[in-house]
Amino acid sequence: MPDLAFRRKSAIENWDHLINNSQPVIYFGMASCGQAAGAAEVRKAVEEALDENFLSAHLINVGCIGPCYLEPIMDVAMPGWARVSYAHMTPAKAKKLVVDALKSGTPPLEDAVGVLEPVENRQTGGLPSFFDQPMLKPQVRIILRNCGLIDPEDLDHYLAHDGYQGLQNALNMRPEEVIEQVRLSGLRGRGGSGFPTARKWELCRAAPGEDKYLVCNADEGDPGAFMNRSLIEGDPHSLLEGLLIAGYAIGASHGVIYTRAEYPLAISRLRTALEQMRESGLLGSHILGSNFNFEIKIKEGAGAFVCGEETALFASIEGRRGMPRSRPPFPAISGLYGKPTVNNNVETISTLPHILRQGADWYHQYGTPNSTGTKTFSLVGKVRRTGLIEIPLGMTLRQIIFDIGGGTEKPFKAVQTGGPSGGCLSAEYLDLPVDYENLKKAGSIMGSGGLIVMDRDTCVVDLAHYFLEFIQKESCGKCVPCRIGTRHLVEILERITKGEGQQDDLDTLEHLAKTISQGSLCGLGQSAPNPVVTSLRSFRDEYEQHIQQGYCPAGVCRDLYQYEISQDACTGCRACVRVCPVDAIEGKLHEPHSIDSSKCIRCRACYETCRFDAIEGKPIQ
Amino acid sequence: MTLDKFPANGNPIQYTQGDLIPLLQSIQERAGYLSPENVSEVARKLHISENEVYGVASFYTQFRFNAPGRHSIKICLGTACHVRSGQKLMEAIERELHIKPGETTSDGLFDLQRVACLGCCALAPVMQIDDQIFGRVTATRLKHILESYA
User: Fold this and answer.
1) Best mutation site among A317, A389, A466, A601 for testing chain B: the one with the most B CBs within 10 Å?
2) Is A77 strand, coil or helix?
3) Residue at which a domain ends, from B35, B66, B97
4) Which residues contact A184 (CB under 8 A, 6 or more apart)?
5) Which of A239, A275, A561, A591 is a good FRET partner for A428, with 20 to 30 A between their CA atoms?
6) B2 pLDDT above the threshold of 70
7) Which tens digit of pLDDT belongs to each residue from A166-194?
8) Is B134:B146 a contact under the CB 8 Å cutoff?
9) Where does a domain end: B66, B81, B103?
10) Test mutation, A32, A271, A424, chain B, max B CBs within 10 A
11) Is the pLDDT of residue A117 over 80?
12) Which chain B residues are within 8 Å of A37, Cβ to Cβ?
């Protein structure tokens, strides 16, 4: 395969030229999250500053490096210097910083967060490595190793970082040997169910028929999870290389990426990457001179959570309502268009290039014996350091939330793993090592990797109601337990959050939950009651407070508390008076204020504004 | 609007059921919504009934059947946004614009939708106006943002 070797050599030369620069390079974290934090304005300001001062620099957009709480992030690499990272950029700060750096030839060190590799023979100004920060140090970055570091729209950057090496290795093996490597690595489905990837492949490979499909589920439907979006935006070729490897192993010639229409940037990055592949002989017929032919299509989903279920996903690709069907036949025998099909999650597929490049044994060293490797999580909610993380499986929830996430501002209450189908795990589960079996035993699931942290201001009843309302809306309506059962769960939970709960409601919830999980057709219904069951287990007293005392201690259910101002804590700063949209708060400067409950709409504005913890949610008298 | 596409050989493309969702998506992208005329035209092209087209379109949250405003506001009510008071943000917008999700302001400037997750969870609560995403939206910031579109 002379072509790719040649291309790789020049890619490495280009990369070396870029980082051994005689010209300054400025990198902008421009994933969707970075843009939401204002990265585009920062880049524009830098461009203006360069023009105004007749300075020049190489500007590169990169993906998300992970610690979203630092966004917008900008790196400056001056000649002779390591790449220095800056956080919380504003247009004004970035402008000044870039001009100072370029005029003096030295990056300002005061506001720097750390330096990125390589650092040999370069000045670092004594700055620590970016990856030595508390949030990043415990992580192991395999899937995310390129994210935030390379230009996702430049194939050369990917090739210079061993890109498509895994594919080359795979094409030098027989497909059965590729499957064997994946089996030895212990890789399990990262979409949440944890089914051994190699076993799924074997079934499909052995299935009769010439036409086989490989489907990549990139319909990241869990609200509160964004691992796949970030990965595709930051390193699209790693997914596409993985698709080729999987396609080769199972003997498929068509690959379909089913992705969310809400992720326009990820889709455009994939399209760009696909064109680059085609130009470089990595797509189409005789890939890299082998006998392997493969085409990849992108299908934009149209918004339906149930399409995360594979048979529903196939229906959606076929242009029908995304409703699951009963099994057997299993997709490995009869899937998309009735052909043998493998459906793998984005993260599963993106892991393949690394396994094929570095070997099954190498991968096996990470994680636990039954849950090998690493897993990405989106660590969000009431945690101090939010963002995208990658950890070896087996790490405890405490390490994830407190060491990586920096804990919560207000006292920790619980963490929801696995999205709406997962469970709410209270403080007693904090020392649980995270792997497929442990989470299942705890009544939750691994899911695709959303970790939503709750503190004392989160009401578990309200959250259970939120999840069930979501599931109920997304229920496709095909089977009765899910369609009608979830509706009743929602009605009961709604009643409780309004203070109209009845004494036997909790028993009814538990009874219904059992029926729904046992009787539903697909995973959506079977796991739908998890949030209720797990939160009832750990927080039954909070449910009872809602029902018996008509009081929501978290101050969320609006009919079940009233705000009062602690006369001792209030300093009379009038901050709450200014934000109240209905003029319900009165008080003179430097004198304790008071709230008129009859006017208060409990919009929470005062509670969030008060810096003295003087606003308290109290039971209604 | 016409759906006919003529490739180089001059023959119109034969649509199949698999093209239904992409077709609806491209119509909505151009027209902003699916009108009854669009639906019947798609049904004719694909040789399926209007009922089937509606059945598929109404199954998915992406499709809308009424005209949007000049700017589309999407409030994220994913879990992270919910935990970080996304619902309060929705209520604040409803108060500011006097519309509910699915509606358009009387001056046709804004329409309002709730979405399941925009994938910027670390910056919750999040809202999107057209293609621009705003993170960590507070009540005060919301006013400034809306004013900049007036």
Assistant:
1) A466
2) strand
3) B66
4) A360, A361, A364
5) A561
6) no
7) 999 999 999 999 999 999 999 999 988 89
8) no
9) B66
10) A32
11) yes
12) 123, 135-136
* Rounded to 5°, angle at Cα A181 from A177 and A182: 120
**What is the number of helices (H) and of strands (E) in chain B?**
6, 4
Q: Are A581 and B78 an interchain contact pair (Cβ–Cβ within 8 Å)?
A: no
| Domain A460-549, classified CATH 1.20.1440.230, yes or no | yes
Instruction: Return the domain boundaries, chain A.
Output: 18-130, 164-364, 374-455, 460-549, 561-618
Q: How confident is the model at residue A2 (pLDDT cuts 50, 70, 90)?
A: very low
Instruction: Give the closest residue to A308 by CA, choosing from A481, A468, A523, A471.
Output: A523
Residues B10 and B29 in one domain: yes
How many CB atoms are located within 10 Å of the residue A596 CB?
12
The CATH class given to the A164-364 domain equals alpha beta
Tell me the CA distances in angstroms from A618 to A241, A412, A501, A582, one per residue in order: 56, 20, 19, 20
Say yes or no: B75 and B145 in one domain: yes
Question: For B67-126, what is each residue's pLDDT tens digit?
Answer: 889 999 999 988 888 888 888 899 999 999 999 998 899 999 999 988 888 878 888 899
Contact between A142 and A373 (Cβ < 8 Å):
yes
What residues of B are in contact with residue A33 (Cβ under 8 Å)?
A: 119-120, 122-123, 135
8-state DSSP, B124: -
Tell me, yes or no, whether B75 and B42 share the same domain.
no
CB contact under 8 A, B59 and A304: yes
The residue of chain A nearest to residue B118, with distances taken between CA atoms, is A262
Nearest CB to A579 within list B85, B118, B139: B139
Question: B101 and B47, same structural domain?
Answer: no
Contact A604 B83 (CB under 8 A): no
Question: What average pLDDT does chain A have?
Answer: 94
What is the complex's ipTM, to 2 decimals? 0.85
Domain containing B43: what range?
Answer: 1-66
Inter-chain CB proximity B119 and A387 less than 8 Å: no
Residues from chain A that touch B121, judged by Cβ atoms under 8 A, are: 224-226, 378, 380, 386, 450
Top-ranked range on mean pLDDT: pick from A320-329, A344-353, A555-564, B62-71: A344-353
Strands, E assignment, A280-411: 295-301, 341-345, 374-381, 387-392
Distance from CA of A420 to the nearest CA of B (A): 8
Residues from chain B that touch A318, judged by Cβ atoms under 8 A, are 17-18
Tell me whether residues B63 and A302 touch, CB distance under 8 A: yes
- The answer to whether B83 contacts A299, with C-beta atoms less than 8 Å apart, is no
Across A377-395, average pLDDT: 95
CATH number of the domain encompassing residue B85: 3.40.30.10
Please give the interface size between A and B, counted as residue pairs whose CB atoms are below 8 Å apart.
Answer: 159
What's domain A18-130's architecture?
A: 3-Layer(aba) Sandwich (3.40)
Architecture of domain A561-618 in this structure: 2-Layer Sandwich (3.30)
Q: Considering only CA atoms, which of A210, A308, A289 is closest in space to residue A251? A: A210
Q: Which residues of B are annotated as part of the binding site? A: 76, 81, 117, 121
Distance linking the first and last C-alpha atoms of chain B: 30
Binding residues of B for [2Fe-2S] cluster: 76, 81, 117, 121
**In a shared domain, residues B102 and B121:** yes
Q: Do B60 and A458 touch (CB under 8 A)?
A: no
Number of domains in chain B: 2
Residues of chain A in contact with residue B80, where contact means CB-CB under 8 angstroms, are: 223-224, 378, 380-381, 452
Fold of A374-455: Ubiquitin-like (UB roll) (3.10.20)
Which residue of chain A has the CA closest to B127? A36
Amino acid (one-letter) located at A573: C
Give the pLDDT confidence of A490-542 residue by residue, as tens digits.
Answer: 999 999 999 999 989 999 999 999 999 999 999 999 999 999 999 999 999 99
Best mutation target among B123, B132, B141 (most A Cβ atoms within 10 Å) is B123
* Nearest to A36, CA basis, from A4, A68, A84, A83: A68
